[in-house]
Write a structure and sequence with these properties.
This protein has 522 residues and is α/β, with parallel strands linked by helices. Among the domains are: 144 residues, ANL, N-terminal domain (Rossmann fold); 114 residues, GMP Synthetase, Chain A, domain 3 (2-Layer Sandwich), CATH 3.30.300.30. The protein is built from 16 helices and 29 strands. The chain is globular and about 65 Å long.
């Protein structure tokens, strides 16, 4: 089955049932299916074929979902872009995947204007949602000129067909595209609904960005598969989210720990404001026990979910264990296997820390165009998450630390290697290292340690300005320290845990030589 069939079938079974609500405007399953068909027929007329890549640069909106389902319906590949990226980052991704069509929102015209001459997208294949510039097609007009009938002449969908590429930054310093098949998405939806217990009567509010695995694959698709209603928010606002929960009687709430924290700090809600909600979930970043306890004291039990783009949800804490196992990320999902292994890949007993690895139909097909990185990540059918965890005697999992130096700022993954690459491109920078440090607002933020070349002068403002044109704002370090040298081991590698210690205790008066020997200054 093609994922777009879900909308087609519900349009037949419950045509007047509301599928999406955006900006207080409802759209039924029949209306959604008609618009998806119009867009699918337009894409075919445009020359988009099976396996072609269609990119989107949009905030959460109905059109995002229409493009997703239309692309899937014709067996093309959907490439959602993080709307926080700067033009150079967008160019890299579009070149890397060779996307041939780009949909974008009117608020991103300036970004796309900088991009369009640098990417392999022909004139006529830029489509704007909202007020379109002269060089782009207008989204609503192309739909008006296209029929709402089901597209014909399409090949039956192969379950292993790639239909999404989600780009995630990594240790290489460059984004890499996790390729997700129709089969993977289907099993992810089945896994989620075991814990959501979703029915057509459910209503889910989506405040996390749809370009994320969490916003699209975890928050939205499981409910559309079940014929439920998804209320979409363009931006996150604590007060507005609470009002949405009350107005639409939301039954399931899942969002990031950062967003839950903002709700607590700005609205101080009690359980009465969530009277319609049957279950609360969170995931995507480290969740402080203090936050979970603060909600439980108000009669609200939040259960954790653990996953990553390459596998979506990996473990899930059932509601019935929410209080007893507070702090756990739960049990392995139904359609998936999870274990903890040591450095040699051998499974370790309960209570022993190791790397979390996962297998099953929920895994990505691989990294787009990068068989080398795929082989490094998936070994003998097991995807190595790079995250450290432990399993207790009852089989519940706990995440100890995010691996590969990654940290999460406001729900967004930040990979130091990517930030360091940009810093090192500055001609005045000799060496640079970035670590995540605690932040009361965003959970974690970046701290950069920079060694300036001899004879050069560099200020914090210079560094920030350098990064502004090259990195999304959430990746730019919030703290910058200029140091004489970076701590290194005998192999000449940067010792990151020492940088974290410096962040907490302050930098000691030591010089670190490349051979790894600490030499006290005279």
């Amino acid at each position: 089955m093609n994922v777009a069939d879900w909308i087609r079938k519900w349009a037949s079974i419950l045509p007047k049932k509301v599928a999406l609500i955006y900006d207080d405007r409802p759209i039924t399953y029949r209306e959604l299916n008609d618009r998806v068909n119009r867009l699918a027929n337009y894409l075919l007329r445009l020359g988009v074929r099976e396996g072609d890549l269609v990119a989107v640069l949009l905030r959460n909106c109905v059109e995002f979902m229409e493009i997703f389902f239309a692309t899937s319906k014709i067996n093309a590949i959907f490439v959602p872009l993080n709307f926080r990226l700067v033009a150079s980052e967008v160019v890299y991704i579009l070149r890397d995947c060779s996307a041939g069509t780009l949909f974008f929102g009117e608020e991103f015209v300036e970004t796309v204007e900088k991009v369009r001459g640098e990417v392999p997208i022909d004139e006529g294949r830029f489509i704007c949602i909202g007020e379109a510039p002269p060089w782009a097609q207008h989204y609503e007009r192309v739909l008006e000129g296209s029929p709402a009938v089901e597209p014909t002449g399409l090949r039956e969908t192969d379950p292993e067909t790639p239909h999404i590429i989600m780009y995630t930054s990594g240790t290489t310093g460059f984004p890499k595209g996790a390729t997700l098949s129709q089969r993977k998405t289907f099993f992810n939806v089945l896994n989620a609904n075991i814990y959501y217990h979703a029915t057509p009567d459910d209503r889910m509010v989506v405040s996390r960005p749809l370009f994320h695995s969490g916003g699209l694959l975890v928050d939205s698709l499981p409910f559309l598969y079940k014929g439920a209603t998804v209320v979409m928010k363009k931006r996150f606002s604590p007060q507005e989210l609470l009002e949405t929960v009350e107005r639409y009687k939301i039954t399931v709430l899942e969002t990031s720990a950062t967003m839950y924290r903002f709700i607590l700090e700005q609205c101080d809600p009690d359980a009465s404001r969530f009277s319609s909600v049957k279950c609360f979930f969170t995931g995507g970043e480290n969740v402080p026990l203090s936050l979970l306890r603060a909600y439980s004291e108000r009669g609200i039990v939040i259960c954790q979910v653990f996953g990553q783009t390459e596998a979506s949800t990996i473990t899930w804490l059932p509601v019935e264990h929410g209080l007893r196992k507070m702090g756990s990320v739960g049990l392995p999902v139904f359609h998936g296997e999870v274990k903890i292994v040591d450095e040699e890949g051998k499974e370790v007993p309960p209570g022993e820390i190791g790397e979390i690895v996962v297998s099953g139909p929920i895994l990505m097909s691989g990294y787009w165009g990068r068989p080398d990185l795929t082989a490094e990540t998936i070994k003998d059918g097991w995807l190595h998450t790079g995250d450290l965890g432990v399993r207790d005697e009852e089989g519940f999992y706990y995440v100890i630390d995010r691996g590969r130096n990654m940290f999460i700022s406001g729900g967004e993954n930040v990979y130091p290697a990517e930030v360091e690459r940009v810093l090192l491109e500055n001609p005045k920078v000799l060496e640079a290292a970035v670590v995540g440090v605690p932040d009361p607002k965003w959970g974690e933020v970046g701290k950069a340690f920079i060694v300036v070349k001899e004879g050069e002068v560099l200020t914090r403002e210079d560094v920030i300005q350098w990064c502004l044109d090259r990195l999304a704002k959430y990746k730019i370090p919030k703290h910058i320290d200029f140091v004489e040298a970076l701590p290194k081991n005998a192999a000449g590698k940067i010792v990151r845990h020492v940088l974290k210690e410096w962040s907490v205790k302050g930098k000691p008066d030591f010089r670190f030589e490349s051979r790894g020997k600490e030499v006290e200054k005279e």
